Amino acid sequence: MDIIFIRELRAETLVGIYAWERQVRQTIEIDLEIALPSSRACETDNVEDTIDYSRVVRRVHEELERHQFKLLEALAEHLARCIREEFKAPWVRVSVAKLRMMHGVKQLGVVIERGQRPG
Known about the structure:
The protein has helices at about 40-45, 55-65, 70-85, and strands at about 5-15, 25-35, 90-100, 105-115. With about 120 residues, it is of the alpha+beta class. The chain has one domain: GTP Cyclohydrolase I, domain 2 (2-Layer Sandwich), CATH 3.30.1130. It has a four-stranded antiparallel β-sheet, with helices on one face. Strand 3 (about 90-100) and strand 4 form a beta hairpin. Helix 2 packs across helix 3 (about 70-85). GO terms for molecular function: dihydroneopterin aldolase activity; isomerase activity.
C-alpha cells in the first residue's frame, strides 16, 4: 500500500460551539494520510498516476472557506469524504487540531480514519 502524507497544514477557519468561535477565525492544523488508488506512479514517475499534493492542499483550503463547523469531528469527516470522493482514495486518515485553545495545552483535536485500509 502506498500512502502520501501532508503534515502540519495550517489554515484559518471558523469552527467551534461557542459564540466567539463562530465570529473569530482560528488557526487549525491538519495532518493527512491518503492511500493511493494504485502504485503506478512508482513505475511511471508521472504525477498523473498519483494524487497531487498541491491539489489536495488547495481543496482543503477551498472547503474551509465554503463550510463552517461546530465540531472538529464534523470538519474531519467532511474533509475525509471530500478526499475519498474527489481523489478516489480507498482510505484516509485525517487529524484536525486547534492550537493553544486551553491553558497548558499545545493542541487538542480529533483523528478519524475512513475507508478500507489496503493490506
